[in-house]
Amino acid sequence: MSTVSRRDALRYGAAAAAVVAGVAGAQVLATPAAARDPRDFEMEYRGKKIKGTHPVTGVAALSARGQRPNRSHEVYINGRKLSVMEIELPAAGGGVTIGYISAINHYEPVLIDADRNSNGLLKLTKRAVDVLGDTELTALAGAGHDHVR
Amino acid sequence: MGVRKSARNLTSGEKAAFVAAVKRLKAQTTGRNYDWFVTTHMTYFASVGGIQYAHRSPSFLPWHRQYLIEFERALQAFDATVSIPYWDWTVDRSITGAPFTADLMGGNGSGGNGPVTTGPFAGSANWRITASASSSTSLRRAMGSNTLPTAAQVTSVLGISAYDAAPWNSSATSGMRNRMEGWQTPNLHNSAHVWVGGHMGQQDSPNDPVFWLHHCNIDRLWSQWQTRWGFDSSRYLPAAGTPGVVDLNETMQPWTGVTPATVLDHRNTYTYA
Ligand SMILES: [Cu+2]
């Protein structure tokens, strides 16, 4: 499976993936803003502005955009980027699931999907704010996780 | 040859010597100083050149073994008597007991989340954080948000004879390594990072000097596993030809000439008491 189709399967269940991709694609053509994921958030939490967006998925949505799609989760805390890293984990019922960590919560993955863990990205973000307290993210928090040398 | 002891058994003189050497390495302005160790850990958490060296891979244990050896050598350049102590969290499970005493690591963060207020690493004047994902210049801890691994959990992990297993990453379900590292239950290593919290839970976790005591304990547990199942190279997996991970005889960056095979038997370099 490609990364994108695996994410779709995660988020919507494999059976629903094709339908959802088609609908999302049509919305992108009409109004780009409609491609926003319903789980995206922008709010204040414990005195900090937090913003999170989920990756755009679905074959139609990707091609309609005609540009490199946002393929990763993005989090900003008070406007500073917190990069989110995918980690393959053993799934509860066997197989593999994807967990997510950040530079702030590095050893405690959260699950993100469209079902029971639909608030996963928000949970990850709130945890980071809890750790930060009265401090802020630095540029190192937004640095990409994969280093090519 | 060094003997690594439990933090709870160090004399006050041994504690003072360890702290002094760590602070001298922190004060060093050139070469592989303390912050070099911090940034190296940050770099190698991810894949470097497509290879997972330090985490989420079989070389988690040998990479950190070499990392500790390098750190210990750096301390010994200041004081040849110093060895890294270990924090046995199956025994020392309190936020006020060893090693979190005022004569060694200091205690919890103020308010349970803020700067550490006791011990030699409290406050940025004593211990200044410079390379971190968060802007705090003082060491922070938020201890006790989860439960430390138990002795029974350690026993269950050490009882697994296979070192590691395909797919050789954080989703491996059989094998000892992923349970020890903690992406698979019962989760030994990751749990203790989370339990200390603050900087220890971040990508820049070596900013908290208790990092070394925790990883010394992880290395000790691996050594116990080796004592039971064998120090020989046939006990490390994978042996050869595995893309993206460090096989037995492949070099572990950023060191030269260091492979899993060269660090498997540590008994001529240091032992555990
Ligand atoms: Cu660690």
UniProtKB/TrEMBL annotation, chain A:
A Pfam match: MelC1
Signal peptide: 1-26
Keyword Transmembrane found: no
Keywords: Signal
Alphabetized PROSITE patterns for the sequence: TAT
Organism superkingdom: Bacteria
Protein family membership: Belongs to the melC1 family.
The protein's name: Tyrosinase family oxidase copper chaperone
Originating organism: Actinoplanes sandaracinus
UniProtKB/TrEMBL annotation, chain B:
UniProt superkingdom: Bacteria
PROSITE patterns given in the database record: TYROSINASE_1, TYROSINASE_2
UniProt xrefs under Pfam families: Tyrosinase
Keyword terms, alphabetized: Copper, Metal-binding
Annotated ranges, domain Tyrosinase copper-binding: 55-72, 208-219
Gene3D superfamilies noted in UniProt: Di-copper center containing domain from catechol oxidase (1.10.1280.10)
Keyword Metal-binding included in the entry's annotation: yes
Necessary cofactors: Cu(2+)
KW Metal-binding (keyword) present: yes
Family: Belongs to the tyrosinase family.
PANTHER family on file: TYROSINASE FAMILY MEMBER, TYROSINASE-LIKE PROTEIN TYR-1-RELATED
Name of the protein in its database record: Tyrosinase family protein
